[in-house]
Amino acid sequence: MDSIFVSYANPSPKLSIQAGVDSMLPMTKSKSKQPNTQQTKHHSSLFLLLSQVLNMLTRAFTKPRKSNTKDGDQNGSRSGSLNEYYDDDFIVGVMDDRPLIFCGENIGGSKLSLKEVLRASVGVMGESRLGMTEKVVLLNAKVYAVKRFKKASVGRSEFGRRVDRLAQVSSKSEYLVPITAYLYSKRIKIVVSDYYPMGSLADLLSGGREHDHTALDWNQRLMIALDIAKAIAFIHTQSPRRGKNMHMNVHGDIKSSNVMINIDFTARLLGYGFTQIAERIEVSDTWQHEPPPLTTNDSLYCENLCQKCDIYNFGILLMDMLGGSGDDDFQNWTQEKKQDIKDGDVEFFEFIMEGKERKQALMVLDIALACINKSADDRPSIEQILLFLEDVLIEKQFPLDL
Q: Which residues pair with 165 in a beta bridge?
């Protein structure tokens, strides 16, 4: 039996359930002489039992009102979770529990169920058109990031096959977030990944800007850019698509909210291949109290499933790390003022740099502008980008010829 989740299509579930209760009660003749005491007691017990069931279902199927208070910390992350929208009796008594399927060898024989995931959710990390990401803390102190997709694009068996394949490839690179487990049921589709305590690059950038300070220094940003370039390079070397198989050599959703930061400020790329197991749906406010402030709008990113779009999105990510924006107006302005920026006549970077660091930042700006070239054929390959970024680290200055 698949998990049963709430539908709010019926605005008054209590009325329809009550009608069902009334129809289940035995009919009595209007002209009966003396009521049977034993039969009356039986009816009373039945009515009491059905009333209890009615109360439980009413609580489960009633959507809670949103709080008027602003939840979450000051960097815009939200503290709400799925548990706020499901009555505990409903989860325990009505929903059929399902075990998650672990990817790979599952050393140690770990076990995890849907109920454990729902109960262990401590906060919503973010939401996109693909779905919602939650932080989950289990009783054994293990912490995971759970991606719940709005709508799967493939069936159960193909979903499992694709997630297993993505997990297998991700485990071979230190620059990709490992996939731990997944679940596909009629009502819910989730993928469980490793959690990183520093959160995402989007969180760090937006949090710093909100408080008017620099969350990451230049060296940290440069190393993050290099790590993500290495992740993309690893993906782009995978085998191209054959027949109806997946595009294993394309990420498909590169953006700052999918860049996870570790405590040593190394970076890993999340969401590899997720656009090939789920559909993009318009974001609703069903599960959130307040949208987090984003460093760049999702609409700025290219959604086509190809390597040149991965390159374009990496360029938008670089622009965000350098100047705090990546929209078309900002891109055009940057192109027009490129020489003035290099001469120091126009302020561009959101942090103060001098000497070697400024020279490196200007070189990274060159690669960012090359990545977001309107002509896809004129964008550099990830191999060219990686070589250039590595040269930036040792400050080998040479004319950019891409």
A: none
